[in-house]
Design goal:
Blueprint: E1 2-8, E2 11-13, E3 19-23, H1 24-30, E4 37-42, E5 48-56, E6 63-66, E7 78-83, E8 85-87, E9 98-102, E10 108-112, E11 118-124, E12 135-141, H2 152-171
Parallel strand pairs: 1-9, 2-6, 3-5
Antiparallel strand pairs: 1-7, 3-6, 4-5, 4-7, 8-12, 9-10, 11-12
Length: 173
Amino acid sequence: MAKIHRATVTEADLNYVGSITIDEALLEKSGIRPFQMVNITNVSNGVLWQTYVTAGKSGGGGICLNGPPARHFQPGDKIIVIADAYIEPSELKDLNPVVIFVDDKNRITKKSEKNDMLHLTVVKEKNLKKENYRWKICGPMQLSRGSQKLTAANRNILKILLTDIFNYVLTLY
């Protein structure tokens, strides 16, 4: 599970079959693997797209949206790439998500791991058997640090999380 935060789209290729091509160095540092499914949020226009990853040339900072998403992601757009995971609740303690922060040229400026942030579980698979619940980790989220305030978006996610946990606990009784 990983996130590449505020990367810059360098290319959009409408005529390619599909996917997102990401600099191989970014993939290695983040732990995202070729052909892994990712969610891509376009900070510039709010579009969310899901596709798979292909590895690009290492060290160049290239990030190219291929195929249909090339209509929604243009060079210069800021994006967030999230590789999520489905895990069992018992696996939460061993989860070590990574967030890669990059500059405008997609060069790594910081790598944060588990101890640097709070991790939220926000989506539960629907399953009637209590012992078969699995949680989808939608990405690490830093709720507050120093003088930063909790954003409205983070408050909404936290509200969903707490409601979900409360409803799950009720099913135990």
